[in-house]
């Protein structure tokens, strides 16, 4: 039996993703209890800061009867040059499942190849699959199935945007993306998504008729924005005026942390469209369900 990793959404079949989200709902309602982590340990190895992802995994591990250990990479021997693969071998020899937050996506892939236990991508510079579990679950809670719906991404074509493209394939929805030409998402992913994904020039074009509008920060961790890119991104700010051009009952999501007045206005983040706090809470329930899935099902 092979180890089941979660490095991107498509690592799990669509039916398994649906089952994970269904289970997340059961955990949230308190309808079920599971102790699949009893006597077992989750280790979180993070190269970048985190509030939601870390807390969600730590609480989820406890709710599943196990324990979680957080390792800041800068306080490990990785800081002094220990190979990523050697770290993976050692960590996986002492623990049962590992969540890694790192820079280049290739590092998560290499880490998983050297690990003897399941590895979860807790964010890389080009993917954030755990975030999409929460976003899709949040949409379903508020509006029912996302299948066949129109979703709009407005802003930087970053890791979360790339994972939205993967989600469009895995959950079968349409995705319009409006971003500056110099900040487009992964072209290969766009191509793979085919008709489901459309790159738009203007934010208004992308959000027209959309049931969900999502955005994210201008500068992701490990990245930066120069003055001209910042100027370009300013035209993609999600404002109340833009939200009024989406479907009448459109939702707004943001993975957080948000920068009010940059990628989104305070009026939208705190407004009637916004479900960002449910979205953040759902990181816990979906990650609890993900841990259970990876610990109980082989690949
Ligand atoms: N959205 C998200 O991943 O948040 P953190 O960086 O706080 O984990
Ligand atoms: N795109 C952001 C997401 C943070 C949760 C980043 O990578 O910094």
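^ Assign residues to that structure.
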């Amino acid at each position: 039996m092979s180890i089941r990793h979660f490095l991107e959404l498509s690592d799990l079949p669509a039916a398994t993703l649906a089952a994970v989200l269904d289970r997340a709902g059961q955990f949230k309602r308190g309808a079920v209890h599971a102790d699949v982590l009893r006597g077992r340990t989750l280790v979180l190895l993070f190269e970048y800061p985190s509030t939601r992802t870390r807390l969600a995994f730590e609480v989820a591990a406890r709710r599943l009867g196990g324990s979680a250990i957080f390792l800041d990479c800068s306080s490990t021997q990785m800081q002094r040059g220990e190979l990523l693969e050697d770290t993976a071998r050692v960590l996986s020899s002492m623990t049962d499942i590992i969540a890694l937050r790192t820079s280049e996506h290739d590092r998560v892939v290499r880490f998983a190849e050297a690990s003897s236990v399941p590895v979860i991508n807790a964010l890389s510079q080009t993917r954030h699959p755990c975030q999409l579990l929460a976003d899709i679950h949040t949409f379903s809670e508020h509006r029912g199935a996302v299948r066949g719906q129109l979703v709009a991404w407005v802003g930087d074509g970053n890791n979360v945007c790339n994972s939205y493209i993967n989600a469009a394939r895995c959950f079968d929805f349409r995705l319009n993306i409006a971003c500056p030409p110099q900040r487009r998402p992964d072209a290969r992913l766009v191509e793979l998504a085919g008709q489901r994904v459309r790159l738009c020039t203007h934010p208004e074009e992308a959000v027209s008729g959309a049931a969900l509008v999502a955005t994210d920060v201008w500068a992701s961790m490990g990245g930066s924005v120069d003055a001209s890119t910042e100027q370009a991104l300013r035209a993609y700010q999600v404002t109340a005026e833009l939200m009024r051009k989406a479907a009448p009952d459109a939702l707004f999501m943001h993975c957080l942390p948000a920068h009010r007045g940059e990628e989104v206005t305070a009026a939208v983040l705190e407004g009637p469209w916004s479900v960002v706090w449910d979205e953040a809470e759902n990181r816990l329930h979906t990650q609890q369900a993900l841990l259970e899935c990876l610990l109980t099902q082989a690949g």
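Residues 50-53, 123, 131, 255-256 surround phosphoric acid mono(formamide)ester (ligand 1) (CB under 6 Å).
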